[in-house]
Specification:
heterodimer, A: about 280 residues, mainly beta, Jelly Rolls, ten-stranded mixed β-sheet, eight-stranded antiparallel β-sheet, 18 strands, B: about 500 residues, Immunoglobulin-like, 4 domains, about 10% helix, disordered N terminus
Chain lengths: ~280, ~500
């Protein structure tokens, strides 16, 4: 008799459990509905999900190599950065569905660090759109990863900052809770650029993946992180010419070491550092 | 009975399947996990036999330690370190006038270094129940301010009632007070281990040194306040960076039967909390120690490596799956040969350390001289004990009672070393009538009524015992009735046995 009763209780529990699971499903879907609308462009025109192991897809990505001198910049990419960019698998590879950019501490071609900088110049360029990537960031003093887009230089006839630069996400590794979105143009570049930061509450950008994006149209650029729209910059916000109603712009993903913005790495900085990119997606309206 | 059990097992599996399915549709959500946890507990609770085995006892997850009053602490609230060891118990209280938030804070009046009631204050707060489940938190936090920029030691995981042999999860760090309220964060190294923690808070503080001239008795009294003391899930604490052996890859030559204390050579963990660097010392119970060759050495949960065989092994550690910086390569040359057995008649001997003779006085082999890096361990089976010195810069053997060697002529010591070029400076110190070791801080030579004889033990045979007999001459020729200490400088790695004074 006892046994039977026990078993029946068991069945009821199972039912109750199923009910609970359904309830949880409902709660979950409710919460996603409450998400802020951060982007409206939904026509996907380019994506790299980094699903094939090995070197990144060469139909999309090129590399900047070296310390900047080959690109006509002072050594350090114009920012006193310390790394030498390579396209070696040690510095850039795709594994397990993510793009891995690795900054290493090593003597290489006269530099003390190596890292990688990928760009879509010549492969994918676009005026306006929604540019989005899902990234897990590195940490440590002197580590400076970025996801950004740069205007076309009309075969070298125009120069930065006239060509325009939109930093979708920048971050310094000793402030692991903060990212910032920035525009550089004539009269508002470098230290005078127009920027706004976004601070994560109760979490860190190096502890997990987060979505960083902009939605860019005529006379406006909106920045978002995950479900939060946190900044809008329009021609009224910049003290110079609005150089973003022209194009096209190409995408850059990189991790710098040192430089004017983050400062040099210190004893607490651990190497190697990795920046993991789950996907890059671009939409049109 | 059998049938019931069978059914239950089925239920159990079904639950797991459900869990797996949920995962597959990527509903990874904290609330969901929590619900599943509840459901799982419910299912299990239906069967007594299984639940007794499979359900962990759960302890309260109370986060607060002190807000405006102690929360869930023992009636004693503050449990001081031993007053017999100098702890001052009169400076602890609550303050209704100064606080960060609410109505009160903890006020601690730190005594000056010459306070007759004790020259430091410190102790612990303990949970009044069986302990708390802190697995959901990543740090202990509090707000504090001080009347000076004094530094205090703070932490958690210390319970004075923890029995020897039980793991202790203590964590400590030192923080500097400021004149305004500031929030302090002590990261929890591995919260998953804190399922029943009773050590809620620990602090210790001594007098403030306004001249910054080191501990010399001129430290003044000062006060600091602590408020809003609680465990938190901050989310801004970085991955731990565990460090052993101060981050160095070191090597040590030893022999079978010896012990190496990994903890005493430093277990620390670095974090950044929202970008600010914090370093804590963590108990060995947080670490997982690994010996690459367990036929040579094994490491227990207290961080003690026991050398059990001949060969080489690398000792490393990890914390929450993160490999610690630093390692120790141990090379064991097998069993230590026995020191030569002393043959002198006991009547002609006053022994300090030997299995062959009764000692004339007990001695301290760990005097804790400031700046000393020396590790001393006594090793060996009964009757074959030796004193193993590692990383010696300078240390001493302090006799509990002075030895009158007026009628004696020599000191004997047996020294073993594995390292070519090992030289030890042995200083036999007569402490004079006042019984105090007095050393000129500029010259290092005896001061006051002290005298000594210095002897360099050089040319030691490697891998064997060298017997040394030092004549009690020089300054000791006329004063050796109050021999009080042996000072040992250099080495740095050697083993001593059979230390005694004798006459020819």
């Amino acid at each position: 008799m006892n046994k039977t009763i026990k078993y029946k209780i068991k069945e009821k529990t199972l039912l109750f459990m199923s009910f609970l699971l359904v309830a949880v499903l409902v709660i979950y879907s409710c919460e996603t509905d409450e998400t802020q609308t951060v982007a409206t462009f939904s026509n996907l025109v380019m994506q790299d999900e980094f699903d094939v192991d090995g070197a990144p897809n060469s139909a999309i990505w090129n590399y900047d190599i070296g310390d900047g001198t080959a690109n006509g910049l002072p050594a350090g990419w114009g920012n006193n950065e310390l790394q030498y960019y390579t396209d070696r698998p040690e510095n850039v590879t795709v594994q397990n569905g993510v793009l891995i950019i690795t900054a290493k501490e090593e003597q290489f071609q006269g530099s003390s660090y190596t890292s990688a900088r990928l760009l879509t110049k010549g492969n994918f360029e676009q005026t306006y759109g929604r540019f989005e990537a899902r990234i897990k960031l590195p940490n440590g003093k002197g580590i400076w990863p970025a996801f950004w887009i740069l205007g076309d230089d009309s075969n070298g006839t125009e120069i930065w900052p006239q060509i325009g630069e939109i930093d979708i996400m920048e971050y310094v590794g000793d402030e692991p809770t903060t990212v910032f979105g920035t525009v550089h143009g004539p009269g508002y570049s470098g230290g005078e650029s127009i920027s706004k930061s976004y601070e994560l509450e109760g979490d860190r950008f190096d502890a997990g993946f987060h979505i960083f994006g902009i939605e860019w149209g005529p006379d406006y650029i909106n920045w978002y992180v995950d479900g939060d729209l946190y900044s809008q910059i329009t021609p009224e916000d910049v003290p110079g010419e609005w150089v973003f109603n022209r194009g096209p712009f190409h995408i850059i993903l990189n991790m710098a070491v040192g430089g004017a913005l983050p400062g040099a790495p210190n004893d607490e900085t651990v190497f190697p550092q990795t920046m993991l990119v789950d996907y890059v997606r671009v939409y049109k309206q | 009975m059998m049938e019931t059990s069978g059914r239950l097992e089925h239920t159990y599996i079904l639950t797991l399947e459900n869990k797996t399915k949920m995962k597959n549709i990527k509903l990874t959500y904290i609330k969901l996990t929590f619900f599943l946890g509840c459901v799982f507990a419910l299912v299990l609770s239906c069967d007594r036999e299984l639940s007794d085995e499979a359900t962990f006892a759960t302890f309260p997850t109370t986060a607060e330690v002190f807000i405006d009053a102690p929360v869930g602490l023992t009636d004693q609230f503050f449990r001081s370190f031993d007053p017999a060891a100098g702890a001052n118990t009169s400076g602890f209280g609550v303050d209704n006038n100064t606080f960060y938030e609410g109505t009160t804070s903890i006020r601690i009046d730190v005594p000056s270094s010459n306070d007759p009631n004790g020259n430091f204050i410190g102790g612990v707060f303990e949970d009044r129940g069986a302990g708390r489940n802190l697995t959901g938190y990543d740090a202990l936090t509090f707000w504090a301010q001080g009347t000076t920029s004094g530094t205090i030691a703070v932490g958690f995981g210390t319970d004075f009632d923890t029995l020897e042999g039980e793991p202790s999860y203590d964590v400590a760090t030192s923080v500097q007070m400021t004149s305004g309220w500031k929030k302090y964060v002590i990261p929890i190294p591995d919260a998953s281990k804190l399922i029943q923690e009773t050590g809620m808070f620990f602090f210790a503080a001594g007098g403030f040194d306004p001249l910054g001239d080191g501990p010399n008795g001129n430290e003044i009294a000062w006060t600091f306040w602590i408020d809003e003391l609680k465990f938190e899930k901050l989310g801004t604490v970085s991955q731990p960076r565990p460090i052993i052996f101060n981050g160095q890859n070191i090597a040590q030559q030893t022999f079978t039967g010896s012990e190496i204390n990994i903890v005493s050579q430093g277990l620390s963990i670095k974090y950044d909390v929202a970008g600010e660097n914090i370093e804590v010392s963590g108990a060995p119970a947080y670490f997982n120690f690994v010996s690459s060759n367990t036929d040579v050495a094994i490491v227990n949960q207290f961080g003690i490596a026991n050398v059990i065989g001949e060969g080489a092994t690398e000792i490393t550690a990890e914390l929450t799956g993160v490999e610690a910086e630093g390692s120790l390569t141990v090379t064991s040359s097998g069993a230590l040969p026995l020191a030569p057995v002393p043959m002198r008649p006991a009547a002609n001997v006053k022994s300090i350390y030997s299995d062959a003779y009764t000692v004339v006085t007990e001695s301290s082999f760990n005097p804790g001289f400031g700046g000393s890096t020396t590790e001393v361990t006594e090793v060996g089976p009964p009757g074959q004990l030796v004193q193993v010195y590692a990383n010696n810069n300078f240390t001493g053997i302090i006799f509990n009672n002075p030895v009158d060697a007026t009628t004696l002529t020599h000191m004997h010591v047996d020294i073993y070393t594995e390292e070519p070029g090992t030289n030890i400076n042995i200083q036999i110190r007569d402490v004079g009538a006042n019984g105090e070791i007095e050393t000129n801080i500029f010259t290092g030579f005896p001061d006051g009524d002290d005298k000594d004889k210095r002897f360099d033990a050089t040319g030691l045979t490697v891998g064997a015992w060298t017997s040394i007999d030092i004549p009690l001459d020089g300054d000791l020729a006329t004063q050796r009735n109050n021999l009080g200490a042996l000072i040992l400088a250099g080495g740095p790695d050697f083993i001593l046995d059979n230390i005694y004074f004798y006459k020819e």
